[in-house]
Design goal:
The complex is a heterodimer of chains A (181) and B (596).
Chain A (H helix, E strand, L loop, with lengths): L3 H17 L3 H8 L3 H12 L2 H17 L10 H18 L18 H16 L2 H12 L4 H8 L3 H24 L1
Chain B lengths: L1 H15 L4 H10 L20 H20 L23 H5 L8 E7 L5 H4 L15 E6 L32 E8 L7 E9 L45 E2 L10 E10 L3 E12 L3 E13 L9 E5 L5 E6 L3 E6 L5 E3 L12 E2 L6 E4 L6 E6 L4 E6 L6 E7 L5 E7 L8 H7 L3 E6 L5 E3 L20 H7 L3 H9 L4 E2 L2 E2 L7 E7 L5 E7 L4 E7 L9 E7 L4 E5 L5 E7 L4 E7 L5 E4 L5 E5 L1
Antiparallel strand pairs in B: 1-2, 2-3, 3-4, 5-8, 6-7, 6-31, 7-8, 9-10, 10-11, 11-12, 13-14, 14-15, 15-16, 17-18, 18-19, 19-20, 21-22, 23-24, 24-25, 25-26, 27-28, 28-29, 29-30
Classes of the chains: A mainly alpha (181), B alpha+beta (596).
Chain lengths: 181, 596
């Protein structure tokens, strides 16, 4: 029996074809499985749920309007991720001054220490440069293979590995600084 | 070690990126609102040769078809109310002129954007306009009616003259307006984009400091009932207050609402000010519900003019006090009434509405033993006096039943006593004063007092010190030295080395909000009364800068205004203590208040 994932994969070419022809329902079925992780990655990157919603909305629109440029239907997931990342990065570059505070701060006082640790990690993450945040999100949240990350970022695989290593080191340093502070 | 850290990072990312199904469903449902992949050709616009205008046309079309997708559809069918005041602040501004603002009679609103791409934030229902997705600064003018735009297509090029293009009149659809966006830092060369019938629902304008030239700010016409003044012969003159400008219909705007005020200009003879009613929206946005710019002429006292707000409990009225010159009773969405400010309260530092919204109380001017009670709607003033008040005192608040005033009064010895002496050692008098008879009931250390009505301070068991603690920044420190926190007999623990800097009760007396600081940061802690709430909770809701100060707290304790210094001005944030969200007011306004 085909697994759900395999069924979805086998349906992908026809869904893409229907979506290219303007079928919104087909487009919905294409993107729906990817929305939770798309939203999650955007939220982690932007650290603002509403901005993440906006970023994924932008990605949905750009993917919808650019669907005819997708060359291989089976590449849709990676192609859509690219739209999400691009949209989130654009928003990071246009960061407004208004920010939302992290809901993790709403921990009960009994969990205060843990909440503060998590908060410190979040703040450390927020202090990283955009490229570091991106690579850590791709690697640790999306668990993307190095090859796809390389394709997404347009850099060689070796560069992905070294960048991920350096980003992690910088995060640890920032985290240590947060804990000291 | 490295693996543990990776695991911790993965855990945090998973938590930070956790999304609920509602969000996913909301996004999925937005797919139905995606624009058609084959877009219709332009219509309703006269073509011009410039590329910029062509882009404008495309963006208008995209705006029209993409509105349901980009933002929440408008829910009101009522037309945008007509504002009676023009955005006079921008008269004479070259960007305003180039957009065709003219005298402002046909202008609904004008505002700058730090980046053109901010249009999605300011005009959430506008739809996609790719030509505005640039980082250059921009200026927006929104017109009331269809307007003939003097369109110059982008930066002038050699040999290319200006062309005048008319735009078809608006169809009068609800909340749809023509607008102009000028993109670029130089008004003369900035690109001009015009859009027809754009949905301006949810308009979010950034209020900025007004330009240097205030000669255009009109003095209100008519006559003003003379405001009480130390110099009766020099009563200020101004006009029947105009109706507030209603910028956008607000069915989708939720509570709470803020009133903010900004003195635009003050000189020896007048004060120009703007007051705005704002409401938070999703995504950290703040929407202007109503705004009103006015100028009052008259003698400005040596302390200078200021704007203060006193939202009247249980009503849509806000008392606006323009220091030294008078007051208005701003009834939201209705004509604004000019008030005669009573002599007794001319210099009262703080005023407190009774919870029933009937009277305002403050220490009477030059009569240390007297509290003045003013009923602004009727204009009546009465006084209560008591010997205990013959000190340097303040009204702190009211009891919940509006019958008694809570007063703190410190002894006057050798001038001004030190805060520490007053608050911790010398037992300043604090207690209740009957608002009818003046009968007093002193607080004693160890008294248990059911603090209600948004009372600042904490009354049990160190009554005097805690009441006095919040009267000034200096005493907040003193408070930390002699604090003894308990709530309903339960000792309240503060995290780590934190010390309470500020305390505030919710209006219903069920929730205590504490701002604790450890030198590095402030934490907003919410305590629900263990003797009232079935499941008492202590929740840290927000981490804030170390210098944060508590402001207004809503009746139910959910919404809190906090203030903090930044290099430019006093900034304010609205915090939602239930959801953990916050809204930053990008204003340098002088005052703000939560509107009940």
């Amino acid at each position: 029996m085909e697994s759900v994932r395999e069924q979805a994969k086998s349906l992908q070419p026809s869904l893409v074809a229907r979506a290219v022809a303007g079928d919104r329902e087909a487009f919905r079925r294409l993107v729906e499985p990817h929305l939770p992780t798309a939203l999650g990655a955007a939220t982690a990157l932007l650290r603002s749920p509403s901005e993440a919603d906006d970023a994924v909305q932008d990605a949905l629109l750009s993917a919808w309007l650019g669907l005819h440029q997708l060359r291989r239907a089976d590449a849709f997931p990676a192609w859509f991720r690219r739209h999400v990342i691009r949209s989130a990065m654009k928003r990071l570059g246009q960061r407004p001054r208004v920010t939302e505070l992290d809901l993790t701060a709403m921990a009960p006082v009994d969990d205060l220490e843990r909440a503060l640790e998590r908060r410190a990690l979040g703040r450390a993450f927020g202090r990283l440069e955009t490229k570091d945040r991106l690579i850590l999100t791709l690697h640790h949240f999306w668990s993307l293979p190095v090859a796809e990350t390389a394709g997404l970022l347009g850099v060689p695989e070796g560069t992905v590995k070294s960048r991920a290593h350096q980003a992690r080191a910088r995060l640890r340093a920032a985290y240590a600084a947060e804990e000291r502070g | 070690m490295s693996e543990r850290f990776d695991e911790e990072l993965r855990g945090w990312l998973t938590e930070a990126g956790r999304v609920d199904t509602d969000r996913v469903q909301r996004l999925a449902s937005a797919i139905d609102g995606l624009p058609a992949r084959r877009r219709p050709g332009p219509s309703g616009w006269l073509r011009v040769s410039s590329l910029v205008l062509a882009l404008g046309i495309v963006s208008v079309l995209v705006a029209l078809v993409a509105v349901p997708y980009i933002g929440r559809p408008g829910t009101s069918s009522s037309p945008t109310p007509q504002a009676s005041t023009a955005p006079v602040t921008w008269l004479g501004d070259p960007r305003y002129e180039r957009c065709g603002g003219g005298t402002g009679e046909n202008v609904l609103q004008a505002f700058p954007m730090a980046q053109a791409s901010d249009y999605r934030r300011h005009l959430p229902q506008m739809g996609l306009s790719p030509e505005l997705d640039v980082s250059a600064p921009a200026f927006v003018v929104i017109f009331r009616e269809g307007h003939p735009f003097p369109v110059v297509g982008g930066p002038p090029r050699d040999g290319e003259g200006e062309s005048l293009v008319s735009v078809a009149p608006s169809s009068g659809q609800p909340r749809r307006h023509d607008l102009c966006v000028l993109v670029g830092s130089e008004p003369e060369t900035a690109e001009l984009h015009v859009y027809g019938e754009v949905d301006v629902s949810g308009l979010t304008a950034v209020l900025v400091a007004a330009p240097a030239d205030f000669s255009a700010v009109p003095t209100l016409d008519g006559s003003l009932a003379p405001a009480a003044s130390a110099s009766p012969g020099s009563a200020p003159t101004t006009s029947p207050a105009p109706e507030p400008a209603l910028l956008t219909s607000v069915p989708e705007v939720g509570r709470p609402r803020f009133a903010t005020g900004q003195v635009l200009r003050r000189d020896d003879g007048s004060v120009a000010a703007r007051v705005s009613l704002l409401a938070p929206r999703a995504g950290g946005r703040v929407t202007i519900v109503e705004a009103w710019t006015f100028r009052v002429s008259g003698p400005v006292d040596s302390e200078g003019a200021y704007v203060q707000f006193y939202p009247r409990p249980g009503s849509d009225m806000i008392l606006i006090r323009v220091g030294g010159l008078g007051a208005f009773l701003w009834t939201l969405g209705a004509p604004t009434a000019q008030l005669e400010w009573p002599d007794e309260l001319l210099h009262a530092a703080t005023l407190h509405w009774s919870p029933d919204g009937r009277e305002l109380a403050g220490y009477a001017w030059r009569r240390l033993d007297t509290i003045a009670l003013w009923e602004p709607v009727e204009g009546a003033v009465r006084r209560v006096s008591a010997p205990e008040l013959r000190r340097f005192g303040s009204v702190i608040g009211w009891t919940a039943d509006s019958t008694q005033l809570i007063v703190f009064a410190e002894p006057i010895q050798d001038g001004v006593s030190s805060a520490f002496e007053a608050a911790c050692r010398q037992d300043p008098w604090s207690g209740l004063v009957d608002a009818r008879t003046g009968a007093t009931v002193p607080f004693h250390r160890g008294d248990d007092f059911d603090a209600r009505g948004g009372l600042r301070g904490f009354l049990s068991p160190s009554v005097a010190s805690s009441v006095g603690a919040v009267l000034s920044e200096e005493r907040v420190t003193v408070y930390a030295d002699c604090q003894d926190l308990s709530l309903g007999g339960t000792q309240l623990a503060l995290p780590g080395a934190a010390q309470a800097r500020d305390l505030r009760w919710s209006g219903d007396g069920r929730t205590l909000l504490a701002l604790a600081a450890d030198g590095q940061r402030s934490m907003l802690l919410r305590y629900d009364r263990p003797d009232i709430e079935p499941e008492p909770g202590r929740v840290m809701t927000h981490l804030l800068p170390p210098d944060a100060l508590l402001g207004d707290v809503s009746a139910g304790g959910r919404w809190v205004l906090v203030a903090g210094e930044d290099p430019r001005c006093l900034s304010r944030e609205l915090l939602d203590t239930e959801m953990g969200a916050s809204w930053t007011l990008d204003l340098c306004e002088e005052t703000s208040a939560l509107v009940p």
